[in-house]
Amino acid sequence: MQTADFLIVGGGIAGVSAVARLAPYGRTILLEAEDGFGYHSSGRSATYYHFGIGKSVVRGMTAFSRAHFETVGANGTALSRPSSALFIAPPEMLAGLDALEAEMRPYSDGLERLDADAVRAVVPVLRCGGDGIVAAVLDRTARRLDSEALQQDYRAAIKREGGRSIAGARVIAIARDGAAWVATTAAGDRFAAPVLVNAAGAWCDGIARLAGVAPLGLQPLRRTIIVLDAPPGQEVRDWPFTKTAVDDFYMLPESGRLLACPVDEVPSEPTDAQPEEYDIALAAAKVEHYTSLAVRRIGHSWAGLRTFTHDRVPVAGFAPDADGFFWLAGQGGYGLQTAPAMSAIAEALITGGIWPAGLTDWGIAPAHLAPERLGVGAV
Ligand SMILES: Cc1cc2nc3c(=O)[nH]c(=O)nc-3n(C[C@H](O)[C@H](O)[C@H](O)COP(=O)(O)OP(=O)(O)OC[C@H]3O[C@@H](n4cnc5c(N)ncnc54)[C@H](O)[C@@H]3O)c2cc1C
């Protein structure tokens, strides 16, 4: 039996960021089922930081996280770079654009309203005017995150503090032994600690069931991204992350090509998500609807799971029905951009430390993220 002070299940961004914050307080062991870290949702994201998503708690955590993303990682790589977000509206989405602008305004001092001509100047392929895009809001405070650099930076911090990260360690059983949680892996190895952090993404409810803890009713939703060639003769590198004001479509540049997403939310079991033909075709159809691009060839596509609570606000807090079992779950479509906040929250609640003043400034209190609000045992 290997013992620690903190046992963390899940080596996505939630798990590694939490361990990086906990490692200075004691011995940490991170268990990841796959052979590498960040294989599931954390490795399949669009890697954007923007305020066009989530409720006020999510936007507040996003704003809090900014300072971390503006730093340079352990290996000298920037964790993010400035990159605008453009929220576009055809006539039927104008009310949605007004509402979105009002919701973003407290968090961004870089908002600018654009008319159709200005939108065309920013992203020339967008269909503007008439029943096409008639207005947009440009947010100059958005950023492109480097998920690989983030993962590496957090894992370097864990290593510096003597924490252990073990890949290929799928937890298949969890039992209580006195004051400790004991996790057993598929290989038969056993790990014990008084605190178990459940950071298993889409599998969090399953981990709770293994431990005899009431699940929260988390719902994984599949989302698809396709990769397209850039239009001939166009330099797309500086195009913004472009998203409809009401959830329907987004597009962004990536290494000289374009990524496009039909903003699909298909309920799924926790699984190694794969793109479905229908969603790939839908993505292509939406590219042709919102832009002048003809989709002749889809270079590549992928899908990933975004896992939500009922109220679409993540969960960070000890389970009310099990001592030492800490939920770090339901990061939905914002797990990267909120990871610095979620991990700071985990640190404060697990170690009994001070609640970060920066979160209080954004009106965020522990109760907003507590599992109790979801009615434990209600599902
Ligand atoms: C298409 C797409 C676009 C997105 N775009 C953005 C974006 O632009 N910005 C943003 O902030 N977020 C975005 N997200 C959301 C973001 O990717 C997620 O919120 C985040 O990655 C969740 O991280 P996680 O660590 O909770 O989950 P995961 O990365 O899935 O990690 C959970 C880990 O737990 C492990 N695990 C599961 N069961 C066990 C077990 N029994 N034993 C050991 N380990 C186990 C899994 O193998 C997995 O590695 C996007 C997601 C998708 C799919």
From TrEMBL:
* Membrane-spanning ranges: none
- This entry's Enzyme Commission designation comes to 1.5.3.1
Concerning Gene3D superfamilies, the annotation shows:
D-Amino Acid Oxidase, subunit A, domain 2 (3.30.9.10), FAD/NAD(P)-binding domain (3.50.50.60)
Any single GO molecular-function term of the entry would be:
sarcosine oxidase activity
Q: Name one GO cellular component term.
A: cytoplasm
InterPro entries documented for this protein: FAD-dep_OxRdtase, FAD/NAD-bd_sf
Keyword Chloroplast attributed: no
Domain of life, per lineage: Bacteria
Query: Which keywords annotate this record?
Result: Oxidoreductase
- Group of enzyme by EC: oxidoreductase
* FAD dependent oxidoreductase domain boundaries: 5-345
Q: What is this protein called?
A: FAD-dependent oxidoreductase
Q: Which organism is it from?
A: Sphingopyxis granuli
